[in-house]
Structures are given as structure tokens and as C-alpha cells.
Specification:
Elements: H1 2-20, H2 24-36, E1 42-43, H3 44-51, H4 55-67, E2 71-75, E3 82-86, H5 89-116, H6 121-160
Antiparallel strand pairs: 1-3, 2-3
Helix pairs in contact: 1-2, 2-4, 5-6
């Protein structure tokens, strides 16, 4: 079981390194929190011990992940420690909506430009491709919003059952 968990954390780490363009340690912290911190969260000290990294490296990467809205922390009454958890999936997926919004603005500008400046058949093909891409982006946005809403419902149900 331990070996399987380590392999899964490593897979998450590689995935998040590429997806978010973050340092390997930050990616593994996120993977570790997804796999091991989902119940009670993990303290700073636990992360230092389990990831075998320096306190400054863990601290720097935790701050980065918080700024990226990929992790959250909470405290317990009477306990001075911070407990870190991966941000809820609905929150992590909202980051994609930011990308979608910028894509929508960009493609709209491209379409406006192409509509005004068509001078040959290839430019008309490019315009048709732009229309198709805009349609694709709008469908992706709709699917993403639907998924986020489903995850929010699940997260609310989980909070109420505690």
C-alpha cells in the first residue's frame, strides 16, 4: 500500500509540474495533500518529515500553492498549528475558467480582425476556424461550469454530513 501511494503521489507530482509549471516539490506537496491530507489536513511539520525537504523549501512552496489557490489551510481551536489541505476540486477547476475567459476575449478579437480584413480564400478559412474554435471554447466553458456546480454540491453534502 505504501509503495502504491508513493507511486501515485509521484504521478500527481509529474502531472502538476507540467500542468501548472511549478517546481517538483510544489507539485509533490499538492499530490501528497490530495492523497494523504484529505481527511484531517497535514501540518507543516508533517510535510517536512514526509517529503524529506527543508523547512524553507516546504514553506516557499506552500506559499506558492496558496497564492495559486491550489491549497488551503485551517486552524483548530486551541492549536496554533496550520493544517494544509488541497483546495476543493470545484475551486481548483475555477482556475480553468480564468483561462477560458482570456481565450474567449482573444478569439473574439481575432474574429473581429478577420471579419474586417478578409482578402483571400485562406483568410476566410482562418475565419471559419476561428468561429469553430469560439464554439468549442463556449462548450468547454459550459461543461466546466456544470462540473464545478456538481463538485460544489458534493462538497456541500460532505460538509453537512460531518
Amino acid at each position: 500500500m505504501h509503495e502504491e501511494k508513493q507511486e501515485l503521489i509521484e504521478m500527481f507530482g509529474i502531472h502538476f509540474e507540467h500542468q501548472y509549471n511549478i517546481a517538483p516539490l510544489a507539485a509533490r506537496i499538492l499530490g501528497f495533500l490530495i492523497i494523504d491530507g484529505c481527511k484531517s489536513g497535514l501540518t507543516f511539520e508533517e510535510l517536512v518529515g514526509k517529503l524529506q525537504a527543508s523547512k524553507s523549501s516546504i514553506s516557499t512552496n506552500l506559499n506558492l500553492l496558496q497564492k495559486m489557490n491550489l491549497i488551503d489551510y485551517f486552524t483548530l481551536s486551541g492549536d496554533r498549528k496550520k493544517y494544509f489541505k488541497a483546495a476543493p476540486l470545484s475551486q481548483r477547476l475555477k482556475n480553468y475558467l480564468t483561462l477560458i475567459d482570456s481565450e474567449k476575449l482573444l478569439i473574439e478579437r481575432v474574429i473581429q480582425y478577420r471579419e474586417k480584413n478578409i482578402s483571400c480564400n485562406q483568410e476566410n478559412v482562418n475565419l471559419q476556424n476561428s468561429y469553430a474554435y469560439k464554439e468549442h471554447i463556449l462548450k468547454v466553458e459550459e461543461l466546466l461550469n456544470n462540473s464545478i456546480n456538481k463538485f460544489k454540491e458534493i462538497e456541500i453534502q460532505n460538509q453537512q454530513s460531518k
